[in-house]
Structures are given as structure tokens and as C-alpha cells.
Design brief:
- Chains A, B: Pfam families: Aminotran_3.
- The structure is a homodimer.
- The first copy, chain A, has helices at residues 23-36, 81-91, 103-113, 129-144, 161-165, 196-214, 242-250, 303-312, 323-338, 341-359, 390-402, 427-442; strands at residues 50-54, 57-60, 65-68, 122-126, 148-152, 180-183, 219-225, 254-258, 283-286, 297-301, 366-372, 375-380, 405-406, 408-410, 416-419.
- The first copy, chain A, is α/β, with parallel strands linked by helices.
- The interface between A and B is large, with 102 and 102 residues.
Chain lengths: 443, 443
Amino acid sequence: MKTTKSILALNAFEPGAAGIEDARLAGLVARRRSHAGAASVLFYEEPIEMVRASGVFMFDAKGNRYLDVYNNVPSVGHCHPHVVAAIARQAETLAIHTRYLNETVEAYADRLLASFPGELSNLVMTCTGSESNDLAVRLACSASGGTGFVVTETAYHGNTALTTEISPSSFKTGHIPPHVRTVPMPAGRPGDGPGDLARRFAADVGAALGDLAEKGIRPAGLIVDTIFSSDGVFADPPGFLEPAVAAVRAAGGLYIADEVQPGFGRTGAGLWGFSRHEVTPDIVTMGKPMGNGYPMGGVVTRPELIERYSKNFGYFNTFGGNTVAAAAGAAVLDVIESEGLIANAARVGAELRAGLVSLAARHAAIGAVRGAGLFVGLDIVDPESRAPDPAAASALINGLKRRRVLVGAAGPFGHTLKIRPPLCFSADDAALFVECVDAVLGA
Amino acid sequence: MKTTKSILALNAFEPGAAGIEDARLAGLVARRRSHAGAASVLFYEEPIEMVRASGVFMFDAKGNRYLDVYNNVPSVGHCHPHVVAAIARQAETLAIHTRYLNETVEAYADRLLASFPGELSNLVMTCTGSESNDLAVRLACSASGGTGFVVTETAYHGNTALTTEISPSSFKTGHIPPHVRTVPMPAGRPGDGPGDLARRFAADVGAALGDLAEKGIRPAGLIVDTIFSSDGVFADPPGFLEPAVAAVRAAGGLYIADEVQPGFGRTGAGLWGFSRHEVTPDIVTMGKPMGNGYPMGGVVTRPELIERYSKNFGYFNTFGGNTVAAAAGAAVLDVIESEGLIANAARVGAELRAGLVSLAARHAAIGAVRGAGLFVGLDIVDPESRAPDPAAASALINGLKRRRVLVGAAGPFGHTLKIRPPLCFSADDAALFVECVDAVLGA
């Protein structure tokens, strides 16, 4: 049942399939394939030419309006005027790196760090989540003296060489390196009592650590996306990470919380996904929604970890923490606060999950509904066997697209709908989404 | 004589030195050190708080205007209105990744690729030069089946784990990994005849390849910044790279041209530094000036290299090739063309070098003047022994700063002034710079 596809290929356009009728679209696809070659990934059975976007909506070249229930980078809403104005204002004033001082940059760093537990008082600004995780892994290695990592089976932590090593979902062939161990996704099972999932996940992590030790590989850490996005979205019960983190720390390793996907309010419970688990990470990494589309990322940790690494290596990031990034990042925090987006994510996310759960009575294809805030996983299963049904998930995704609703897939089988709209998603938007899922499944 | 400092620490503020009198500046420095910790790098004996910039000028918080003879990211001029307008327009219209199609993105890819030799027909868009080189190294490894790399002794190719391995200048302690071999910078010597430097550099590369072979390490490639910036700027004679590239290819390796610093017109001879050497690279990487400050980078290569890598691994870059990056990149190409910046770099660069050479008659501290276009290296030496004098270079850099002129240091000894102003630098700007160097050295 394990798909041989990279998770990056889920919901991907397959050029070998039927031709594209629309000449303009066919021409764009041909140009894309000509210049991007084998690295090109386009969404949907028939790709979409997007021309503009606003709030929770995107518009294609024919003027069709799509409800965006997928894109987590424009997290406070596509082209949010407050963020756009901040970018434009700073770009026309000063766009420069951190080797000069600038109040906008220092103020953003102060403000961002204030949202973390006190001991996490240092921030390294980068350009992407990949750069953040790449540095975090090195910080963990130098602090622990180890090299071994434990990750989930369908983890994705970035596109650099180092982060690809800890991203089993990026491997199309071959094996992950010997210093990396995988554990199953933290999925609930029928009959689970309180604490069972947490104990099981910790036992899996413990076994992975034991196997590393047996091979003479000293552990450096456990890195998890705190909402397990690419595994299929696993959020509950809050706190289930704690025993696994205790196990890795007991073995001398560190806990890296990858907040690239859950961070900046999406889980509806504070800015950070890790806070739902009531254990402070050693290192936190950020990316995607940090600048609402402006390329920026960051690593937050304790000062001694950066000091330790910096004894051996210089680290400088030309674009990381540039003045425009800082202005964009501050504007994103402004909007999250002024529009109450964390509370909105909690409220609308709960309504969305309730709506999807209510559909299960009518549609046997609906399996589990999971998530926190506006990060929701919806399993599509075979109505009889209840086994994962990636083909049906794909049909639903493309059916939703024809109804002008955008969503994607996740999980080891590709049968989980990855539902993560902009955080300004309203109750009406959620109701419309549920209605469309209902209609496509009923068709 | 080899400095133990990382090249990243050249011209760096040393907090242990004399206190900062200005209270506002002292406060900013304290905040920076508190949140950025050991990773913080600030320029100058006393850092500068910058507040705005325009064209070739930057302005500090007290209203002082500085002539920028250093910053190569805002390459078409600080806050160029055409680039700023393109960023603002696209950011308010659509800021999204490449899994949807968009004409702005496809048109930029077509236009950029048209500037390369025909066989280099694929482009992977990234966010930074580091991400570009990180991918390029993997492409070279998968295409060659090797892992060994040859780099220069003071090379810098990025801040990811993989690119740090091939960046000897980032190592403060310890040794570069066993699969990496270094060769001396391609410096001319007194008495060199035509072809001597090229033969010597190729012989060094050949010896490094031989040493790799002896240890059973199959070569993957030679990666060089085509103007050898961090080595101290080595541009001449044009074509000197050709025999070294032939040697690496004969050994089964590839040639990666790192255009992060010389690219986009700076050398005054076309868009790319490699073209001065009349040998087509297997892979070209781009970064810094690509978006005039907007974080973007790219890898250009032959389709089969991407195809080969993509058989084993998925690669997707969330921010790479986003619509705003494409708009920024296209605007940069517009300005390079409409303002004739390549010809300007050639003309003003030649005047600048001539002016500096003419100073040598009056100032024995001036050693060699090297470069191409607006990328110039100026060696500062002991007047008697002619040995590298990093302390005098540092004094000159800080003296120039007091005269409101910004410049930095490079090279294994830190005695080379790294001169790389925005490409709109005028003959008057060049004359002013020469005049200030004259004044500081005469003081």
C-alpha cells in the first residue's frame, strides 16, 4: 500500500495523460516543461494558470474564482494590503543585510522572540524553512556531539542536501542514510485509552534510538513537524509528544520543533504548534507563512547552541533578516493580532471539522477527520474495506477543483486531504467547502 | 600569515573593543547581541545604523550619506524604482509558488535562459545562492557518480551544510572534509609568460584530482566563483580557467560556475563571469544580485542532469520562482538593459582600476589592482616588505568609512579591498572613491 511516489508528486499533473484542450494552457505547460524539465511539479490533472489572488480567493486566467483551502504560505490572506504596503514601503526605503544595524530588523527580532519561552532567546534569520532546518540539524549535532536523527516515515523537512536526508518523503528510490531512523506517524488506534498514543510514539522513538545506539551512532535529535503535516496531520491528543521528547533527551539528543507548517497561528492555540504539547523545544524552525509569501525563515534556540556551532564555523545569510523581510514579518504579526486570526483559526477550524465529520454519515468514503485550528486532515477510504483510497482522494481533489475549490493531498498513501486555508477563512467559507465536498462525493 | 579568522569575520565589529559613545547605537548593538548572539556579524570598528538608500548612496540614522562601494546585492542601484514598482505591483496581485502556472514566471524563465549557451536549457529557481550551490553539488554528484570536489583555498560557496563543506573560508577550526581538495588562488607571479597562470592553475587542479584518485575518491567536480571574490578577486587573463576545466572533465567531473557574485553584468563583459573564460559550464548558479535584494537564486544546467537527480529525489522549492521573484528578476534585467549597466561596469570599472593604479606611485601601501568591470580587488601591502598587510587594509576600510565611503575586505590574508559598487556607479563616483583612498592613505 505504501506509495512509491514522493509526497511532492501527490496531486501532480502527469504530462503523459490526455492532452490539454485549451491552447494557451497547453502552451504554458509546454514552456514550463521545456525550461524546468524534470524538476517541474504542477498541480492537478489539468494545471491552472493563476493571475491574481485576494484574501481566501485565487483567480485563473479565464476569470474563474477559486476558494483557496490549500495554500498555507499566504497565511493571513492572499496579497494582504497591510503586508503588501509594508513590503513596498521598506523596499523603496532600504533593502539591505544585517551587517548594518536597522531598527526595523532589531524590533522584529525582539517582537518575534517575545512569543517564545524565555530560554529560547536567540534568533538566526534565514530565507526558507529548508535553510532553517539545515542549520537546526547542525546546531543539534554540534550541541549533542551526535549525528543520529529520528523522524517520521513520511516526514518532509526541506530541500537542501542535509534536510533531504531527514525527509523520507523526498526519496523516490533507495534508502534513507544509516544515521536516520524513522518511526510511524502518531496515529490513534481503535480502543486507545488516555496516554496510549503518547506511550506508543515514545516507544517507537525509544526503539529507533536503541537501534542507533546498537549501530554505534550517537543520537543528535528528534525533529518533527509539530502537526505532522506530510504524515497526514496528527494533532491530538495535545501533549502526546512529551514522552518521546523525554526519551530523546535521555539519550543525549535534542528536540527540534519544525514550525514551518504549523507555526504563526495556524493551530488556533497560540503562535506555535509545539505549545500544544507542553514541552519546550531545544530548537524551533520557521518558514512558509512567516512573511505571507515574502521568502523568509528563522531558527530560534538557546544562545549556547549558536555559540557552540559558531566556535567552528562562520554563518552568515545574505538575505536572512534583511530589512524588507523584517518589515514583512512584522506586518504579518500585526495582522494576526489585529484580525484575531488565532482565535479565528480555532473557531472556524472547529466548525470545519464538525462539518466534515457530519458528512461521514452520508458518505462512507470519509474516514477520519483530524487536526487543530485551520490545519485539517481528511482521510478518504474505501467504503467497504475502510482502507486508504488514494485514487478516490485524487478524484475528490480534482472534482473540487472543477467546483473551484483548491485542496491537496498528504500522508504515506496520499489518501488524506490536506486542508489548510488562509487563516482569514470564514465560517461561510468553511460551510461552502463542506458543501462542495458533499456534492463531489455525492456525484 | 594565513589568518585564523573566517572570511565572514573580515571587517567585523569586535564587541570587546572600546565602548560605543553614541547611546542609540550602543543600545542597538546590545539588542542585536542579545537576540542574535554568537552568529551576529556587524561591519566596522563602530557599526552603522542605516535607515535608507538610493542609487549608489546609503544614509545613516544621523543623515550622513555614504558612497556605497561594497554592496553587490542592490546591484542595479539601491531601491531602484523600477524594481520596487515591479515587486509592489506583483505582491499586490499574486504571490504564489510554481505549482500553478503564471505567465510572469514562465516569461522570466524564458528570458533568463536565453542569456545562456543553448545546451544550458533548464532552470531551477531557488531563493538563495546557498540553495543554488547546494543543489548544484548534488546534480554534479549524481551526474558524475563521484563525490570529490576541488575548490580554492579561500572559497565561499554558501551557508548550508553541504556548501559549507566546500567553503574553506567558513571553517574557523578543524579541517575541511576528506572529499574536498583545495587549490591556491589563481594569482599571477612576477615573470609569468602567456599561459603560465592557466597552466599553473590547471596543474594545481590536476594534482588535487590525482590526490582524490589516490584516496579512492571519485571526482564530482570543480566549483569556482568565476571572479574568485573571496580569494581576493582574480579575473585575468580571460580564458585561464579553460585548462583546469579540461582537467576536471578528463577525470569525469563537472564544472560548476558559481555566478552568485560575478553574475548579472558585474564583470562588464556580458551577464556572466564564465563567458570571459570561453568555456561553457555544466552547471551555473546564481543568487545575490538576481532580484536586487529580493531573495532569489537559480541553477541553470542541461536537462539530463536534472532528470538524473530527479529519478532519485523530489525537489520542490516553495518560494523559488514565486511570482514576485519573477517580477523582481525581470525588472532587474530591464534595468541592466535600459541603463546600459554592463557597458557602464566595463567603462567605469576600467577608470576605477586606472585611478587606483595611478595612486600606487604616491602610496607604497598599494599593491596589486585586479578585477573586471565593477569587481575590483586592491591589495594593501607593507611598504617595505610588500607582504600582505591586513591591519593597514582594516585601517584603510575604517578610514574610508569615516569619510563616508563603504568598502570591505577579502582574500586569505584579509589585505585585499573588495570593491564592488552598484553597477550604476559613475565616473565621478569612481573618482571620488580614488580621491578618498588617496586622502586616507596620505593621512
